[in-house]
Amino acid sequence: MAEANSVSAKVGNQSISLETGKLAKQADGSVVVRSGDSVVLVTAVSAKEPKPGLDFFPLTVGSPAASSGARVDSPSGRR
Predict the structure, then answer these.
(1) Where are the beta strands (DSSP E) in the chain?
(2) pLDDT < 70 regions, the chain
């Protein structure tokens, strides 16, 4: 079992902290990022074996809120 790690840094006038090893233990990797009042959980999973016939690294981003039909406020969604 991996142990929890935490790193903090000051960027400009904001403090940012990165924490891994506590949440989303079923994912292959996860990080909790904190800055001010904002907190984001980022997770990544991968297949154990490569898919035959692919000569590139496909990246897919999934959002449970977007797939459920919920409206997500973002600058790109305000057109």
Answers:
(1) 5-11, 14-20, 29-35, 38-44
(2) 1-2, 58, 60-79
| Whole-prediction pTM | 0.62
- Sorted by sequence, the CB contacts under 8 Å of residue 42 that are 6+ apart come out as 30, 31, 32, 33
Q: Measure CA of the first residue to CA of the last residue in the chain; give whole Å.
A: 45
Residues written for the chain: 79
Gap between the Cα atoms of 11 and 18, Å rounded? 13
Whole-Å CA distances, 49 to 11, 41, 52, 62: 38, 26, 9, 20
